[in-house]
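If your schedule permits, I should be very grateful for your opinion on a structural question. Thank you for your consideration; the sequence and its tokens are set out here:

===
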Amino acid sequence: MTSKRSLWPILTLIVLFSLALSACAPAAPAPSASDAGAAAPAEATSAPAEEGVVEVAVTPTPVADLEGKIVISFQSNDTQTFEALCAAYEELHPKVDCVTELKPPEGYQEWIRTQFAGGVPAASLVNGNVVADLVLDKQFLDLTSYFDQTSPYTGKPWREDFEESALANMRNPTTGETFLLNTETVQVLWFYNKQAFEEAGILAEAEALAQTDRNQPTWDQLLTWCDALDEAGYIPVAIEGDFRAFWEFRVGWLARMYADQFTRDEAELVRCQEGDWCARPGIDDQWTYDPTDPYNDDATEITFNVVRKMNALKSGEQSVNGPKWRAMYENFKQFADRCTPPGWIGTTDAYPLFLTQKAAIRLDGAWLLSSFEKDIRNLAEGTYSYAGADAAAATPTPSADDLAASVFEIGSFNNPTMEGPEVDAPARTIEVNIGFWSIPKKDQAQNNLEVDFLMFTTSPEGYGLYLENRLDPNNPQGGVNGPPVIKNVSLPPEYAERFASLKLIGNTEKDTAGTYRARGVADYQPTVREWVDLAQQYFTDKITLDEFLDQYQAALENNFDAVLEHQQLTPTDLEDPTKKPANF
């Protein structure tokens, strides 16, 4: 599933003001019922040990004279994995106190801000992608120089522990800075119940599609499938509709992925041009627009100028109430009317509908390929929890149907592509390296200790332990996102085969020409909240399409000055897009 061309800098997404990944503030697509996992070490590619636990071969590491405290505060609920890492690290470094203080998704962004507002953050490791402005303000440690240092756990420069393309994903191409560490890959796609498709008479069509290069239906084809499934007695698609579903999960993914289809041609308007402060010789002066190439706007091919974007937004050249947005939301309304569960707006967790075979399709991350059977088992045993739901709904009371849930055969297909005169290119998806591990800046000695912990974790010894716990069948929060980007580790054959069958169609989760305004502007929360409220009203027929789009456009115009400040830009910066902004 990994591809050097398809996985490009997530930090570009943040620094150059595109959208953060799904958990947007939760910027990585958040796992369905369990945390996104990882893979198994290369030494363990043989059959798993008893009950599926991977046997890990480790190399003893000399104890270094390190001391201090490490606090792991990721957005996660997998205490087993991180407590195991802490215990192993403390055994190597007896003077270090390593503690696990994981945080829930709800309120995580605000919690990080509180850490910085209170002075020097106590946390050693957080998911920095949720606070793009703090990244821009360089509140996190730049890891770039550390990659050239020798890891005491491998005896090689730290950069040699990662795939080369993965380091490119983490690095801002215009500054060379690296504030987010990624260790895994993920792809967003649609999963379906084969028995339900067979009963609806559409299985043969879906399976024939899976044999094509892109495994990609059209949007109208998806809607037709929804109609057939509804007639067969199934809820077509299990999808949530609360604020967080729109902001950071599936509806937010759809808004960003499909805005990409309609804005590819805006690249000429907002790219870094010759003479611009951000133009890269040999790259931006060589670029030509090619919508047939899904990698044409990767960060290795083109650079976008945030000042030109803000000028285009201010002038209305990049709007949200023109023909493109109208066509896109007409399609979304068809999806809402024909594919979603009854009363879906406001629901916090629809995944059990898929697990209990009431719903036939689920939009999810490739991590489902490793967690699916476990999620069904947890549901049937009454131990199910859903990371995407608000805390109050995180552990629903199991119903009789939940307790009777059993494993069924699933297939998958890529994002259906919308068609029509307003569409610029075929649909792409989210195909990225994820993890987003960041270290808040502290004094040099403390930051050095925290980087040493990362070096241990990304060594075969540490990552082997990490993956062993992720793949432990008795760890309810375990799972695998996709192939790891750490060298000398690989997926066990069972998982490698599952992920190898996925078809790459191009990545949208990066700095692009126009998706920064897909749901609010550049993650500025007041605009996000207005978009969510308006979109929910539109989908429930409380306002018309014209009212929705015009009010959304007005919200962006009314918040423009605040958005500009959020981007660390000033009105003076907009006067000359060739000059580097004063605060950059």
Residues 527 and 555 are 7 Å apart (CA to CA).
